[in-house]
Amino acid sequence: MPRLTRRQSIAAVAGGGAVVGLGGLGLLSSREGDLVDSILRRTVGPYKMKNEEFTRFVADLGTAPGYGGRAKVSMFRAVAVTDPDTVLRMAPSAFGKKYEDYERRVVTGFLTRTDFLAVGPAQPASFIGAPGCGNPFARFDMT
Predict the structure, then answer these.
(1) Which pTM value belongs to this model?
(2) What is the DSSP string of the chain?
(3) pLDDT tens readout for residues 7-61
(4) Using an 8 Å Cβ cutoff, are 48 and 123 in contact?
(5) CA distance linking residue 14 with residue 37, whole number of Å
(6) Minimal CA–CA distance to 12: which of 93, 76, 105, 85?
């Protein structure tokens, strides 16, 4: 394993401190829906969705395995509120990977669990739930 230079060590400590500090700030103002909305607006673009549908979508995302806990969501929220590119550049690479995985999970969930692709950004999208089994060889009549 290569040794870090003094400058790299100081940058890593500063980046880690920034992430921890922003996570603490995020704990004070943690709202998962705001985080999901900011991610979708930045990655998908403008979209419309009724509040009830969006609340159901966020709740469904929260039940997905590996989605994350309250502390993780709070830290991600703090990153999303600030400039994600700058913060993630300073943060440890493992945290950046977790944040990118979280963003992908949100965007994938939005595209597969709503009818956004069918209706487009001009009309309100509806939450349709998790997709069914896509295996054409699945047998459901087995006992």
Answers:
(1) 0.64
(2) -PPPPHHHHHHHHHHHHHHHHHHHHHHHT--HHHHHHHHHHHHT-S-EE-HHHHHHHHHHHHTSTT---HHHHHHHHHHHHS-HHHHHHHS-HHHHHHHHHHHHHHHHHHHHHBSHHHH-TTSEE-B--S-----TT--S---
(3) 766 766 666 555 555 544 444 334 788 889 988 998 999 999 999 999 999 888 8
(4) yes
(5) 29
(6) 93
